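Need residues for this backbone.
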């Protein structure tokens, strides 16, 4: 089942009040001015873990490939290999893997499961990286050896609009680890956002605000410059032991401002490249509008 982007329009007044401290993005002024549509805050689900499993990379890596537990034939038992993570999409049929808060969504039946075990305590890290099917291409302000703009290929989730906050549902089992969200801005800089501890039992949403200083727009049209979520990182606390860790993830969402200015003359193209860039922005906006009206499944 393919992943789909889902979002719900939220009440503007309380959200604007809650995120007033984040500040307002700069806006291009037009003769028409802006009404309440000048800020379109929405909750958007960008990953439901319904199709492709993410990749897991551990640090430190497997030093000697020593199994933690072996069977009577001396072969490593599943899930009991030191510094070697297992990761897969879990939940289907009559036993869906999802928090009860998402049970209204019949398309959300699966989640991402992760199991790992380290041989020594210390600064142990597991990075979860989006699959190869999730790629973002960016044109950099650099030239290659042919004097053509460099294009960067990123495994990540393109976050729509100007993002105010990021959340993910986590099913914990009391492991003393913290979760980080790594995002890359349009300039190529990476920002590490601390989402909090996963030392709890059961499903719980972890949320982090995106700081004002993270650039997400420019002063010319098209204004929005999307962030990219490049990885989720689990990091052990000093008090963490080396017991086996099992954790699940579901429903990565963003609270985001979807507004972008439109003006008389926006359809005038300078060249084919200019036309292509604006057409891509319009098609993206149309697809989001379809989800808002319940037309896309």
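Answer:
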């Amino acid at each position: 089942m393919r992943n789909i982007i889902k979002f719900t329009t939220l009440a503007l007044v309380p959200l604007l009040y809650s995120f007033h401290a984040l500040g307002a993005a700069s806006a291009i002024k037009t003769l028409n001015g802006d009404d309440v549509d000048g800020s379109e805050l929405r909750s958007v689900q960008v990953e439901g873990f319904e199709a492709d499993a993410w990749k897991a990379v551990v640090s430190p890596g497997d030093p000697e490939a020593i199994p933690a537990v072996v069977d009577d034939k001396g072969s490593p038992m599943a899930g009991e290999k030191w510094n070697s993570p297992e990761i897969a999409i879990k939940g289907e049929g009559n036993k869906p893997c999802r928090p009860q808060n998402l049970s209204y969504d019949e398309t959300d039946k699966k989640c991402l499961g992760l199991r790992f075990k380290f041989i020594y305590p210390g600064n142990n890290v597991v990075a979860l990286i989006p699959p190869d099917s999730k790629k973002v291409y960016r044109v950099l302000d650099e030239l290659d050896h042919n004097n053509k703009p460099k294009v960067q290929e990123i495994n990540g989730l393109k976050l729509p609009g100007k993002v105010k906050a990021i959340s993910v549902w986590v099913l914990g089992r009391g492991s003393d680890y913290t979760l980080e969200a790594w995002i890359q801005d349009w300039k190529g800089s990476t920002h590490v956002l601390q989402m909090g501890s996963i030392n709890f039992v059961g499903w719980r949403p972890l949320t982090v605000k995106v700081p004002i200083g993270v650039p997400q727009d420019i002063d010319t049209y098209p204004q929005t410059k999307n962030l990219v979520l490049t990885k989720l990182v689990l990091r052990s606390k000093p008090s963490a032991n080396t017991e086996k860790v099992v954790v699940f993830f579901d429903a990565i969402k963003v609270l985001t401002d979807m507004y972008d200015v439109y003006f008389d003359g926006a359809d005038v193209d300078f060249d084919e490249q200019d036309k292509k860039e604006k057409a891509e922005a319009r098609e993206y906006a149309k697809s989001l509008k379809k989800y808002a009206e319940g037309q896309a499944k």
